Amino acid sequence: MLKHRVIPCVLLKDWQLVKSIGFDSFRTIGHPTSTARIYNARNVDELIVLDIDASLNDEDINTEIIKDIADECFMPLTIGGGINTIEDIYKVLNAGADKISINSKALNDLDFIKKASSIFGSQCIVCSIDVKKVDGVYKVFTKKQGLLDINPLELAKKYQEYGAGEILLTSIDKEGSTQGYDIDLIKLFKNELEIPIILNGGMGKPEHAVEAIQNGADAVAAAYIFHFSQYTPNDIKKELNENGISIRKIYE
Amino acid sequence: MLNNKIVIIDYHMGNLRSVQKAFEKMGCDAIITNDHEMIRSASKIVLPGVGAFKDGMKNLYELGLIDILNEEIIKKKKPFLGICLGMQLIAKKSYEKSETNGLAWIDAEVVKFDFKDNDKKFKIPHVGWNNVKYKNDNKLFEHIPDNSDFYFVHSYYFKTDEDIVISTTDYGFDFISSVNKDNIYAFQFHPEKSQSVGLKLIENFVNLKEHS
Hints:
The complex is a heterodimer of chains A (252) and B (212).
Chain A: E1 5-13, E2 16-21, E3 24-30, H1 32-41, E4 47-51, H2 52-57, H3 63-72, E5 77-80, H4 86-94, E6 99-102, H5 104-108, H6 110-120, E7 125-134, E8 137-142, E9 146-148, H7 152-161, E10 166-171, H8 183-189, E11 197-200, H9 206-214, E12 219-222, H10 224-228, H11 233-242
Chain B: E1 6-9, H1 16-25, E2 30-33, H2 36-40, E3 44-47, H3 53-62, H4 65-75, E4 80-83, H5 85-88, E5 93-94, E6 100-101, E7 108-112, E8 126-131, E9 133-134, E10 149-154, E11 156-160, E12 165-170, E13 174-181, E14 184-187, H6 195-206
Parallel strand pairs in B: 1-2, 1-3, 3-4, 4-14, 5-7
Antiparallel strand pairs in B: 5-6, 7-11, 8-10, 9-12, 12-13, 13-14
């Protein structure tokens, strides 16, 4: 039986890993390689690293750091941020990533998803959607283009149609809040997609992961909880297990 | 022939470095190459791969690797480890996008998951950690508990009637997650991405005695 994943999702900025709160105010969580090493030692199910320098400043993707991070990861590694060309994907995969996450490029060029998935396979292409709730309506948000009048679920369905293998769905309102995932948001997505959804933003205690998965998330991503609370990814998995949700067993 | 010279075939299909790193972690250097002489001098051959079947076969063909692989693995019986796409490529054919012939080392087909007629809808790709149920004792599973979780990421799976299945995995039904025929070992999951149990499997491959 397929297990539900618990995935740390951290940001790369100025050669450091950081955690944002509501997409602003960054807190440094550590050096990339030592953080990756710790996550590997703790047997996390996967690691997502988003390079925000590359995505915001049109800088080249920092393949040096990605390579260093990948060298520590004997679990799946997803890298995102600043992916604009097929060449970028080659570079990131050659540096040791297993999957790539695409956000703004996907939004502005659906055919890029089609092309990327036909070359690298759907399983390699994660499409990332950032969502903000405005007057009770969910809208797609990007740092560069701001709030867009696009329905996130419709967008996710488009991504699926064009060959995305997974959706990374982040609630900006909840992000860094520790108040729990956006359950209304994931409820909208439940049973609507054929591809897995990783829900991100808001986990503050293990119960939040249970709630997210019971309401339709295939996997949960988080950062704040792992760096600024006493909970480890294994604590989350223990809670999931106690609630009858299948998780990966670790044999020591 | 050098003792335990492991070669990872570079045919421009995905996470070669991850696989190399896993060998290094287990104390064994592995060379990433598509150089014909280098492959001929190898004692063991690894075919990893992420991506589309058709591209994989096309690249093997264009790099002139098909005859060499046939020679070294089928004729000389060097231990072979196929991972993910590297497993699928040893089948007779795949139906990924359109019908494509594979290396045909095993009488098998590669087909897409299809849950249209299931009550419960399973998502495609099958991505994440899933347990591997052993069919029998296999050298490569030594010291790895039955039903350990390995990392999978694929939309197509391997189908064969040959009596070579060494494990299955449940995703809506029991599909074939690994096979072993003589010197050929192939896994749908990614040992290089499955932390301790995966590294153990890599180590078991390193420790395999050569066939010939």
